[in-house]
Amino acid sequence: MARKLAVFDFDSTLMDGETIDYLADSLGLKKQVAQITERAMEGEIDFFESLQERVGFLKGLEAKKVDSICQNLPYMPGAKETIEELKTAGYTVVCFSGGFRNATGHAKKILGFDSDFSNILHAKEGVLTGLVGGDMMFDFSKGDMLLRLQALLGIDRERTMVVGDGANDKSMFAHAKTRVAFCAKPVLKEAANIIVDSKDLTQVLEKIDL
Length: 210
What we know:
alpha/beta
């Protein structure tokens, strides 16, 4: 069986919502952060700058609280079943997230994907410093990582599927034959060849050839 690769975004794709909005909500700052998140996902502002700005709002949040929130996020309906089906069909399933390892690392245990690439919230003495670093900091990061992963696994764009919802997913859409816009912003739908507009990831399976 030829190896295949499926890459999913995390926030608003595998998970129903935005991790950083949940974290900000615990500080009473959800509205301010969500407004910036929305503009970043629409492609209206630079992703790197928006990420730094949003994480800055989280300064002082206890790291234990971060982990607690990230371990109780609501996953998208059909996420686990879709990943299981893809793996049965011979896919390597990976999560690329402009969000945080606290969330994607836990989700990997629950949803069963093979690996996660995301960002790290910097903490010192048990509290967030408001700084962030990691694999997925820029608008181009997901495309860049996808090319490296394809080279490592020996999988070409013809056998690659990507699934996402926001502007920072667009860079990986350039390197995959199957491009699924899932409950997505208009900027991403333009780059997709499959569109799913209801919150049920199993609908992706109905639109692809496994």
